[in-house]
């Protein structure tokens, strides 16, 4: 019985192709918009989580000043001192690695090639805290760090832009006004979650940076990699207590520094992305409501056009529930076709958006199934009233209809 109703519905749709297509547009646009927005939102969230994880595992970042949006910069007036760093180094437990650092924008020159880059002065443990992988060479030694040797490690962007296929190891580049020997190169990490190129970097001993580049002993950032994720809360609390003590902050006074947990940052950013995706998806879902109203309208027109046909069916013995099923199935088939087309179009738009925004394409079969089932539900809800109107027609009055 149902299969016969489906075949009859398909014949009716083919008989009025243009009208059926126009009726489907609302469903197609609504489903496509919802799927595209949700898929792009999931891809953006995945990209953000992935990029934050590249900053290091189980990372805590301390920097001077009150919390502000964006990556740690250490640009506040009262910077960290070597005393702060030593107190943390001696007082923290459950730490895998720790490194103090400062950064500055500068120009790097090799031969006739030059590049604006980020110069970071830090300690040998910096590469462990940031989970950097070396493609060639190695980090500078503790003796290099203590003596302020003019050696440096460069990122993949500088290898490509300055050396263009030439082996950089042992070569001398000019950083600001200082000649510096390249002793290592880093594997590519790509863009950070904040939009900066992580591979456009020169890393050198902190003392070298302070003497030759910055001209001061200020320390902008202290990065601590906890031994495990479970240890993060206790390490963060201990960092806060130690820094409050070394910076002589009295009880009740506000901290003049910030200790950030990158895991919490990732969760907060993912939550914000999810909320925005949900809001945009809800706006797009309004198109489905409009499409459902269009389905109801066209089914009422169909009932009016086929009143005599309904009367004949009722006169020769068709039951009211059979007529109701016929029109209800027709509405459901229309919505299912629109849902399937909208799903395909939505994933096509999401794929294009993912390529344009350079984010992962996140196919979710559950989202596709829910979209199609929701389309069918729209057919049931908005097709029921016209179907019931058809089933309640008086056969005698229907046969008199011209």
Description:
With 402 residues, this protein is of the alpha+beta class. It has 2 domains: 2-50 and 267-400, no CATH class; 79-255, no CATH class. The protein has 13 helices and 10 strands. The chain has helices spanning 2-15, 17-53, 82-91, 126-129, 142-147, 156-163, 206-214, 232-246, 262-305, 307-315, 320-357, 365-391, 395-400, and strands at 59-64, 95-110, 113-122, 134-137, 151-154, 172-175, 178-186, 201-205, 221-226, 257-261. A 6-stranded mixed barrel has the order 2-3-8-5-7-6. A hairpin with a 2-residue loop joins strand 2 and strand 3 (113-122).
Record field, number of beta strands: 10
In the predicted model, the low-confidence regions spanning at least 5 consecutive residues are 69-76
Strand line-up across the major sheet? 2-3-8-5-7-6
Domains, number: 2
What's the rounded overall pLDDT mean?
80
Strand-and-helix sequence, N→C?
Answer: HHEHEEHEHEHEEEHEHEHHHHH
Strand fraction equals: 15-25%
Structural class: alpha+beta
The helix fraction, in percent, is 55-70%
The biggest beta sheet reads: 6 strands, mixed, barrel
* N- to C-terminal distance: 29 Å
Q: Cα-atom Rg, whole angstroms?
A: 33 Å
Shape: elongated
Counting DSSP H or I runs of 4 or more residues, the number of helices is 13
């Amino acid at each position: 019985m149902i299969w016969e109703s489906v075949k009859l519905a398909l014949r009716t749709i083919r008989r009025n192709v243009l009208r059926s297509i126009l009726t489907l547009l609302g469903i197609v646009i609504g489903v496509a918009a919802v799927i595209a927005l949700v898929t792009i939102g999931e891809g953006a969230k995945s990209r953000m989580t992935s990029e934050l994880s590249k900053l290091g595992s189980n990372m805590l970042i301390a920097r001077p000043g009150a919390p502000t949006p964006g990556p740690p910069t250490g640009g506040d007036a009262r910077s960290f001192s070597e005393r702060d760093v030593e107190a943390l180094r001696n007082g923290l437990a459950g730490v895998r690695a720790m490194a103090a650092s400062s950064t500055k924008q500068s120009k790097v020159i090799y031969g006739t090639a030059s590049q604006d880059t980020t110069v970071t002065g830090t300690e040998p443990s910096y590469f462990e805290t940031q989970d950097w992988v070396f493609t060639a060479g190695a980090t500078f030694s503790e003796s290099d760090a203590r003596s302020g040797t003019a050696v440096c490690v460069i990122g993949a962007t500088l290898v490509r832009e300055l050396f263009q296929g030439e082996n950089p190891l042992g070569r001398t580049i000019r950083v600001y006004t200082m000649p510096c020997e390249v002793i290592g190169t880093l594997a590519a990490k790509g863009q950070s979650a904040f939009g900066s190129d992580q591979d456009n970097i020169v890393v050198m001993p902190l003392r070298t940076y302070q003497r030759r580049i910055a001209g001061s002993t200020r320390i902008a950032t202290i990065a601590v990699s906890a031994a495990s994720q479970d240890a993060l809360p206790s390490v963060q609390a201990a960092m806060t207590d130690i820094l409050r003590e070394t910076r002589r902050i009295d009880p009740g006074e506000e901290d003049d520094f910030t200790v950030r947990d990158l895991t919490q940052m990732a969760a907060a950013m993912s939550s914000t992305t999810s909320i925005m995706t949900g809001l945009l998806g809800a706006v797009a879902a309004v198109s489905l409501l409009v499409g459902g109203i269009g389905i109801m309208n066209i089914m009422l027109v169909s009932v009016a056009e086929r009143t005599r046909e309904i009367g004949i069916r009722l006169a020769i013995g068709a039951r009211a529930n059979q007529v109701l099923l016929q029109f209800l199935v027709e509405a459901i088939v229309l919505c299912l076709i629109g849902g399937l087309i909208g799903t395909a179009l939505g994933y096509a738009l999401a794929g294009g958006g993912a390529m344009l925004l350079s984010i992962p394409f996140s196919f979710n079969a559950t989202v596709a199934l829910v979209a199609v089932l929701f389309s069918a539900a729209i057919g049931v809800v908005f097709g029921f009233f016209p179907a019931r109107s058809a089933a309640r027609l008086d056969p005698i009055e229907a046969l008199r209809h011209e």
